Amino acid sequence: MNFIGIQELKYIQRMLFFMSESKQISVSKTGVSKLAIIALAIVFAAGLFVVGFDQGHIFSIVYGEQAFTDLYIHELTHDMRHAAGFPCH
Amino acid sequence: MKTILFIVIVLLSGAFAGLIHGIVNFAIVEPYLDQAIGIENQNLFDSGEEEDTPQFWAEYDGYRTWQKSGQILAGVILGTSVGALFGIVFALSKNSLPGANNVKKSLILAGIMWFTMYLIPFLKYPANPPTVGDGETVVLRAILYLSFIAISGLSAVIFYKLSKRFDKNKKIISIIGYAIFISAVFIIIPENPDEISAPMNLVNEFRLMSVLGVSSFWISVGVILGLLWNRIEPN
What we know:
heterodimer; A: mainly alpha; 2 domains; elongated; B: mainly alpha; 7 helices; 78% helix; globular
């Protein structure tokens, strides 16, 4: 029975590394990584909701209905909400 | 493109620009917010909804401190958020943007996004200080404001895509097309339903400070992302 030796394993490792490098080069030629766009789009949506529109929704996941009365995030972002032109009150 | 490096410089530039926005607001917008909330408090006393007591002021001081301390933090969060969108658009459009280097390209894009996604929606739905907004209409106002931003931003992208089909000397047709389209939307989309009962000089000065604050963000994010891109070159 033939087992894979250390040298063969190193060769496979080098090939995999080379393939991943090649993939990175091909992505850079075609443009922006989709993963980066998705990650940044999530940051955009989440941040905009927190600062511009939350009325207790996020904390209600933990604190329930009380969060809509406490309005912690609303109060924390209140001044920026007005200053940046978001509707408030 | 090095994905992690790209995400890091985009988020950093947004967060720094947001920090600047928060600091600028803290310096120039806060006095107007205090003034407007002072009027709001007086209205509460006059209507009998609240009494001018030490307990009222103790509670007021507590939440005003919380609100003021949030100005800079909210600036960083908003900056990171809008900066993320800016980074996506910059990375996708960098090769088509005019400008000899990344700072110029980034500043030009920041100018375009400031104009289409902030200034035009602002002209229809200008920022208002406390005392102006009616709590009953906040959802409607949020829908109208977001819709107008989305319509203006997306239509700018569509007209830009259309311009690629035209010859160089006919690209102005796209700009005119966008101007006509957004003017039509501007007229058709409903007005802010709230009446302004606060003094107009306070409202107008607040709006001017608001524009200066938001503009400081767009200039900062353009410069910082361009500089970081030049230095690190994620692609």
